[in-house]
Amino acid sequence: MAYDQTSGLQGGAGVAPPDQWVAYLNGESGLPGPRGNIELAEAFADVADPALIRECAESRDEYLATCGAVGFGRLLADGQVRAAEVLRALAADSRWRVREGVAMALQRLGDANMPGLWALARGWVDGPPLVQRAIAAGICEPRLLGATEDAVRALDALDRITMSVRGLNVQSRRAEEFRVLRQGLGYCWSVAIAAAPAEGFGRLKRWAASEDKDVRWIVRENLKKSRLAKADQAAAESVAAVLTRSGE
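Request: output the structure for the sequence above.
Response:
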């Protein structure tokens, strides 16, 4: 365990009774406050009993549910197929920290089994906006995209999700779920492109020429990320020029 915040509760995973774990998590959550204790959530996910992970995931308490979501990433990586169903449901949770926990859970799967993450992605990219946002955030993590093949797969997924944005009606775009997805796409593209600039900038340039104002917004937000200029400044400037000509 990289960050041993739970050592006081374990002599083996799950030795302490659940209520003691819950009290400890609540006491060390860092909430209310500007930043929840992500390190503790990760440590909990490493060692907690599956039954406790499920109990936390079902909690009305946002931090406990976040810990449960991250824990389900370990269960999924361990081969518990049903964990994917639970995570998909949590991806649509109204609480943003829980949704972030799902993205972290997907990254745990990727750390253990990238083919498994891509198999899951195929079933999520055509889902509702919050599910799409979860898979985009899950796969667009630099440590997972070290291989060009994986970076291109991430670009493929982002292409498919962005294409679905283009087809949405006005009413759908007013929903909070769409706002969350759009915001996520506003940085995810830059992560994938930085990992595969030769392939990625060409795709972003095509989207920059879109007539869809939300798609152009997504391109513009990604161009603000310094990682794109570091990856290929001339290519980033070329995309910006297309964006300007398309009306931004």
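The radius of gyration is 19 Å.
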